[in-house]
Amino acid sequence: MDPPFDLTVIIPTFNEGENIEALIKAVETVLGNAGIRGEILVVDDSSRDGTIPAVRALEAAFPNVRLAVRTADPGLSQSVVEGFSLARAPVILVMDADLSHPPDLIPRFLGEIRGGADVVIGSRYMKGGGIEAWPLSRRIISSGATLLGRILFPEITDPVSGFFAVKKEVVSGAPLHPRGYKILMEVLGKGTWRVAREIPFVFRDRRAGSSKLRPGTILDYIRQVIDISRHAVSCRQGQVWEECRKILSFGIVGISGIVVNMGILWLLTSYAGIYYLVSAVIAIELSILNNFLWNDLWTFGSDTAHRSRSPGHRIGLFHLVSAGGAAINWVILFVLTQFGGIFFMVSNLIGILVAFIWNYVVNRNVTWGRR
Ligand SMILES: Nc1nc2c(ncn2[C@@H]2O[C@H](COP(=O)(O)OP(=O)(O)OP(=O)(O)O)[C@@H](O)[C@H]2O)c(=O)[nH]1
Ligand SMILES: [Mg+2]
Fold it and tell me: Which segments of the chain does DSSP mark as H helices, in order?
């Protein structure tokens, strides 16, 4: 038997009485115009404003509107995951209730899924996307969260978007551990998918009602990123595991470079009698070549997408990035020790860490990046 619907639109709500009616009516219009058999599933966390009566009235007026009221374990991600299990269509779309996500794009999301995507993401950070009227502090927090997410999902520009569609089979059976706000990260990290596509959109700030963001949300997010990485390492498959494997390999190669550097410095100085500062230059160059070789063959060797540049170009870029990393290490060591009053060994450790992130991210995306 055919499923009764093509698409389930999940709308999580908490105190959205001023927005929900306008949103549901807009979604109904879009579904109707596009000829999509859609169900609208509102998952509410026992709102205390007019949300519940408003949706009840719409339930009576539209046969495809359904309300689920939760009474335990409140939370945005928990509500969306509950929506996943209640959804009756093979494709699920998630959107906010406050009109930040444009309903007009719903048919494009479904079109991309029908065209072969497993996950379709509404992106604020790709060409054509954007954010309207956010204060600087909010932009900085959001960019930070997005950057952190992009370490795990480098090919996705907005892995923390709240506007996305997914095939139901991607999430059914996935060991989702919903917490916090970034349910898409959980879906990408734990669901089974291969093809992800993005659609640009401009995020409109809410006109009515109030934000439910709390400071604890940031902590929840960091815990979630750690949990997703741990899951990837323990099951050793999927996109996140591939990235974790690359980061780990890159780190091991970095350590091998230190061994090469120290060994050559010692050999050239003690055995060949070369002045130690001259030996050091040779040692640095040989360790860079050592690292390049192992990263080229091993860290990024398994995937031809990482070899879009010529070998000469890759070697040249790797040298430049390494020089940048050394400069970053040195500047942090100097600034933290001189002006921060931090013990120089600790400053250096922080410098090494930041330089490592720089080296990895730039090499991953430029030296061995897709063009
Ligand atoms: N069920 C449920 N929905 C929630 C909860 N917190 C937020 N929501 C809904 O999730 C969506 C996104 O929440 P918002 O508060 O708009 O988050 P935001 O867009 O990051 O921030 P603002 O637009 O500035 O408020 C909205 O539809 C909210 O009503 C929750 O605890 N439970
Ligand atoms: Mg919002």
Answer: 20-34, 51-61, 76-86, 106-114, 136-152, 168-171, 183-190, 216-235, 239-266, 276-294, 311-338, 344-362
pLDDT interval class at 178 (50, 70, 90): confident
pTM: 0.82
96 CA distance to ligand 2 centroid (A)? Answer: 6
Task: State if residue 98 touches ligand 1 by the CB under 6 angstroms criterion.
Answer: yes
Query: 345, exposed or middle or buried, with CB in 10 Å at 0-12, 13-18, 19+?
Result: exposed
Residues listed for the chain? 371
79 lines ligand 1 (CB under 6 A): yes
206 Cα: distance to centroid of ligand 2 (angstroms): 6
Q: What integer is the mean pLDDT of 248-267?
A: 96
Whether the predicted pLDDT of 213 surpasses 70: no
Q: Does the beta carbon of 171 lie inside 6 Å of ligand 1?
A: no
* Cα distance between residue 149 and residue 347, in whole Å: 26
Which of these, 100, 85, 119, lies nearest to 187 by C-alpha position?
119
